[in-house]
Here is the input.
Amino acid sequence: MTKFEMVAMLTSDHQVILRELASYTTFLAGALSSTAVPTFCELLFGCMLSADGFVTQALLTIDFHCVWSSYHHWLSQGKWQWKNLARHLIRLVCSKAPENQPVVLGLDDWVIERFSDKAPAWYARHGHELMG
Here is the structure.
């Protein structure tokens, strides 16, 4: 089946969804450097397509283009700022929420970094991967 045949099979609802998804992805990618965008998109779509949303499952779902370990390296040590991506995601979610309605966000404690030496437990980091 050619790309043109696949596009012809899409309903108008499918086209709307894909257009929105492309718009959201482009908006989120704006928080990243141009070199980080391909890796981000591969992981994002892999997580959406996999049953669990974990990096390993995401990679098994897609036809990835980099070496397996490079994705984990990019996530943990890459030259991108998760705070910029988080800000973009929050802006996107808030822009789609009904006007004058609260938007509730749940943040896991691994997301909140402790920067100040005066903050309680600034030295503590939870190793969730070590928890059974």
In short: Residues 12-29 form the longest helix (18 residues). The helical segments are 3-9, 12-29, 37-49, 55-61, 68-77, 82-96. The mean pLDDT is 78. The chain is about 55% helix and 0% strand.
